[in-house]
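Assess the record.
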Amino acid sequence: SLGEIANFLSFESISLPTIIGSQKVNICFLKTNNVYIELIEPTEENSPITNFAKEGGGFHHLCFEVDDIQQEIDRMVKNGAHLVVAPVKGFEDRLLAFLMLNLKKTKCKLIELIETKR
């Protein structure tokens, strides 16, 4: 269970599981110090993470909180990233977007940007 995982890893649960319909996922955040871990599970067979979950899951992407999501998208695209998901409302009604980095020697190429709460 979520509580068992949080307790075992000495994390504190900071959110209840929340379904994000637009992404077809159920998410929950855990926190330790200033590090947040997002647990993600698909809610539908055609979720963007269904295949990832079927293959055993694991580390999926990094997320960065930014003040101006469009400015950061423009900067990253100018430097070679590819926009995968244009800004949409997500967790806590905040804008988020996904970009794929053009890096050859790393497995983690997916970056999520989430706009700072206003």
User: Anything to note?
Assistant: Residues 1-59 form a domain with the 2,3-Dihydroxybiphenyl 1,2-Dioxygenase; domain 1 fold (CATH 3.10.180.10). The chain has a mean pLDDT of 85. The chain is about 20% helix and 40% strand. The radius of gyration is 15 Å.
